[in-house]
Structures are given as C-alpha cells and as structure tokens.
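Hi V.,

You were right to ask for the full record rather than a summary. Here it is.
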Amino acid sequence: MDEDVQLILDIVEEKMEKAVNHLQDELSKLRAGKASPHMLDGLTVDYYGARTPLNQVANVNTPDPRTIIVQPWEKGMLEPIEKAILHANLGFNPVNSGELLRIAVPALTEERRKTLVKQVKAEGENARVSIRNARRDAKEEVKKMQKDGLPEDTAKRAEQDIQDLTDSYSKKIDEVLQKKEEDIMTI
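Predicted structure:
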C-alpha cells in the first residue's frame, strides 16, 4: 500500500511541477520592457503553403535589450515573416534591411506595465488553480485507498505530505510572480 501512496505523491508533485513550468513559459512570452527571442514564440509563418513556427525558418536573437533581430535562412522568407509579425498584432514594427528584420522594442508605458502586472497575476492564479486541482485529485485518491483498507495514520500522513507539496509549490509560484512583477515594473 505504501508504494501506492508514494505513486500518488509522485504524480501530484509532477503535476505541480508542470503547473510551475507552464507558468514560467507563459510569463517568458510576456514582454517586460527588455527584448527577448521568446516574444516571438508561437508566431507561425507561411512557408511554401504550410504554417511553420518562426524558429524553424529563421534565427531570432537579441543583440541588445531594445532590439530583436530575425534572420531568415532563406532571403525569400523576409516578407512572409514581416507580414506574420505585423499580423500577430504584437505592437512591433519590423524594419526590413534586405538581409534581416530588425525590431525595435519600445519602452513600456506606466499604464502598459500595470496591465502586464494584472496579466501576470492572472497567469499566477491559473497556476494556483492547477496546483489546487492536483491536490484535490490526490486527496480523493488517498480517500479511495483508505476505504479499500489503507490504515488511517498512513492516509493522514499522505494527506499532510500532499499539503506540504501544495504549500511548497504555491511558494514557488509566488516567487516566480514576484520576480516577474519586479522585472516589469523596473524601468
């Protein structure tokens, strides 16, 4: 029976870890005033009739904190990439130099920063909900096992371990959110 309890704990920890990783991925896409190649993640380009992720048709890098450079592997892809960036409505205006696209990342206004902080908090709440759902599912599994003969003290210990995991991952989420908020509010 203890192996089953350990399996539940491993599964709940994996789910919580995924929630934190997902939060970090989502927050990396949010612009915090500094240019980042992640700002163009999820952007697809028309590559000979097929929708292809930008990072599969071009190099994307940031030579300085205010500029993103997109260098396609084929010169013919400059225009489709430029159109994709404009249509994505990211607030960027790419400059085509014939060899590559240069994107100047404008500084964030105070109002935009506050909006981004709200967005960060919403993403954080989504991650917290995922963690609470994982906790609830694990506790239900432990209760089922208790009905099937798991000793009460083992079930209580398992529930306490689940709560400890929940607390530690909630703290991780708070740390990630705090760091991102500071990043956004720093001019």
